[in-house]
Amino acid sequence: MSIETAIRGRLLAYPGAAALVGTRIFPQLMPQGTTLPAITYAVVSRTTEPTMGYSNTGMWSTLLQIDVWADSYSGVKVLADQVRAALMDWYQESTEPIWRVLHRNEEESYESDTLTFRVSLDFEVLSAVGS
Predict the structure, then answer these.
(1) Are 127 and 3 in contact (CB under 8 A)?
(2) Coil, strand or helix: which one is 107?
(3) Tell me: the pLDDT tens digits for 24-35?
(4) How many CB atoms lie within 10 A of CB 67?
(5) Which residue ranges form the domains of the chain, and what is each CATH number?
């Protein structure tokens, strides 16, 4: 299972986020005409952590940007709160574990051409899987 699939699954299963967006959680881009609120996500970077001897430890660090979109400021803030609550310090034990999800950064913006509000949340995902 990829990091992206695991994170999308977590958001779909988290009651607060799912109540707001249903299944409107998309990789990279939101399809035209999508009803808001919605979520998009993208991998910004992915690295492995070497040991002092320069061999791979098996731990990967993936920086994931999750953008939440809504047609009101209050709506985007509520959705951002739900995404943050769903992912902050979350971990998944399985054959390909996600060891920890850490909230790293957050930025608000307004898209004047589409009249939408956006909050971009950056999360670092520490895992045993690199893709």
Answers:
(1) yes
(2) strand
(3) 999 999 999 999
(4) 21
(5) 3-127 (3.30.2000.10)
DSSP code for 119: E
The model's pTM: 0.88
Closest to 70 in 3D by CA, of 42, 103, 109: 109
Asked if residue 94 has pLDDT above 80, the reply is no
What are the beta bridge partners of residue 64? Answer: 43, 123
Q: How far is CA 36 from CA 20, 39, 84, 91, 116, in A?
A: 9, 9, 18, 28, 9
Query: Maximum CA pair distance of the chain?
Result: 52
> What strand order describes the sheet that includes 38-50?
25-27, 38-50, 56-70, 116-127, 98-111
